[in-house]
Amino acid sequence: MKQKIGMVIIITIVLWIVLFPRIEKAETIDIEAIPLTIIQVEIIGAVEFPGTYHFFKEVTVGEALLYAGNLLMDADTQLIMTSEMIKRNRQIFIPSIHQAIDEPKILVNVNKASFKELITIPGMTETRAASLIIYREAHGNFKHVDELMNVKNIGIVTLEKIKPYIKLG
Q1: pTM exceeds 0.70 for this model
Q2: Which residue, of 55, 58, 62, 138, has the fewest CB within 10 Å?
Q3: What is the pLDDT along the chain (169 residues), one digit of tens a residue?
């Protein structure tokens, strides 16, 4: 009799599980994938570990240089702005004090250059290039290089840095 009661209980439990299965609700969250941007920075010149480094967010020049190891003893850091933000792929060249800096082969005409051409100038950020174009459209062509000082975000230091790479006509 005890076996029959035990069998009835077991059959009841099995039937209960089969007929009334436990349904677990799983919450799902629908999130669109955030596009991943990779900024490639090539660091060459007087550094311990020259090469190409990849970043997943904007970094400063100083932060990028940390990945290239120490600067060599003969590194010339006068033209390096460590606080400048890197927002797109870029090359950073650390010159040596024993190495002569070559004059640029191609000069950019600031009176006719497009935004893309302007940002190829070393020391010219996207903000400065946009400001230059806005000023140029409002006031006409530049007649002298020193007029660039009137452009928002371009001061004496920036002007001296970009002078070797620009022309007016």
Answers
A1: no
A2: 138
A3: 778 888 888 888 888 777 777 777 777 777 777 778 889 988 888 899 998 999 999 999 999 999 998 888 888 888 788 888 988 888 888 888 876 555 545 788 999 999 998 988 888 889 999 999 999 999 999 998 889 989 998 988 888 888 888 888 7
